[in-house]
Amino acid sequence: MKSLFQPRALTQSKPTISQQMLNEASEWAIMHGVAFRRDDNTARHCPFSIAPMTMQRPVFEHLIKVTPLLTKLIDRVSEDHDFLQTQLADVAKADPFFERLLSLHHQVHGSKNQRLTPARKPLLLMRTDYMDDREHGAKVIEFNGIAAGMAPFGQRATELHDFLRLQWPQEFEGFLEHKQSVSADNKGLTQLASSIAQAAQKVAADFAVKFSGGNAQTQTVPTFLMVVQENEDNVYDQHLLEVALQQRGIRTVRRTFEQLSSQLSTGDHQRLILEGIGGIDVVYLRAGYQYADYYSPQRDEAICCEALSQTRLFIEQHHVAVNATFSQQLATSKTVQMLLTIMPAEAYSRWGLTLEEAHLVKSVLAEMKPINTDTINWFNRHPNKQEWVLKNQGEGGGHCVFGKDISAKLNSLTPKEYDAWALMQRLFPHEREVATIAVRDSEQTWVNDLVSEIGLFTAYFDGQPVTALNGYAGYLIRSKPASENEGGIHSGQGILDSLVLVD
């Protein structure tokens, strides 16, 4: 489905919001936890837009319809261990971290001739990121199956803009592209917390009823473990989720892999036990997507990061809901995204999708190409290198190469490294028709070329959707100047944003 917007030239002007409006918006953000932690344990608010982006309602409704189908597909691919081990073997040879993940996957699930049945229950909390391309419509940028956070910030950004619309109606309307637009409902925090709570309650009930002789009175408070990075700054987004879980009767604890390496043990019936806490029902990884998360300077290891990655393996060998499993992390990789893009729609029947569902999925997948000698030769002759982006298997920002830099990077790769990379059609979303204000560190900056990325959250537990909308669970909008390649909220020029719809 194509976007109905076209970009137009904008005239730069001076910021117009008052200091009072700026102060109140910044204070609202801090007061509601839309913040990063500083090294001295104080907080700074996340950068945000003063007004939302606009999308045609049919485009958004199409994404809400197709994204749960993508999640259904990824969920089933993640449990197709023959497919993952066969198709990702070459990538493992090209990328050391991927090699470790696939090795751990083998330890959990065995090989094709001797499959193992793991005790863990898959909880797929996924964020699918899109850009609404000017020509081709909304297309997937990437799947995020591990550390797919910021649903709390997504909901809070919507609430922030609702606050500004109420308190500063004239000023707020001045930044809207369409005066009759309607805020798109966003319950990302609420829905994600509800999904996790359902999984926690189900696992806790398993031990209370199935494993305790049918005596439901032995059930303890369901417990949620968040695996975090040491001294990270993005703790408030995490704490917002924890508070929402606590309000649903879920106990929450936080640990690093280093802490868990000496605190986990096995209870009766493969119960995962955390020292000083007891049984764990859900493990949610906000770490584990990069080698650094498994590195401990105190450990002298013959194989880098083996001990802490074995801690993650230990978790998956227990009866506990896990996000993300090794399988989910592999299934949401750039290589699997490329394989699903290249294969015909009919091939999706392997994972139970109808042809109609497969074509819906295909409608949002941008063209991708594997890296080989033919692709490199083709790209070096390509007249417009700005139409492509080169990606490796890394998660988060800083893993993409753009434009003319792609040829230099491709020519520097050895054949052994080819399978760790892929070319993808570059997406060019429409620039916002009305310039807006970006607020960073309580200071305002005029932006007249803002473009946006929308991430849709979905939740599946043990193969089934766990929200009323077939697994859909809210959204996250991040915007950036069109001239910037890196749009991360942490490391790039990205700002939090929200969404309004027009018919």
Automatic annotation (TrEMBL):
The protein's enzyme class: ligase
Needed co-factor(s): Mg(2+)
Residue intervals of the Glutathione synthase substrate-binding domain: 223-331
InterPro entries xrefs: Glutathione_synthase (IPR005615), Glutathione_synthase_a-hlx (IPR014042), Glutathione_synthase_C_euk (IPR014709), Glutathione_synthase_N_euk (IPR014049), GSH-S_sub-bd_sf (IPR037013), GSH_synth_subst-bd (IPR004887), PreATP-grasp_dom_sf (IPR016185)
Alphabetic keyword roster: ATP-binding, Glutathione biosynthesis, Ligase, Magnesium, Metal-binding, Nucleotide-binding
Domain of life according to the entry: Bacteria
One Pfam short name: GSH_synth_ATP
EC number: 6.3.2.3
The keyword Magnesium is annotated on this UniProt entry: yes
Family: Belongs to the eukaryotic GSH synthase family.
Name of the protein in its database record: glutathione synthase
Organism: Shewanella japonica
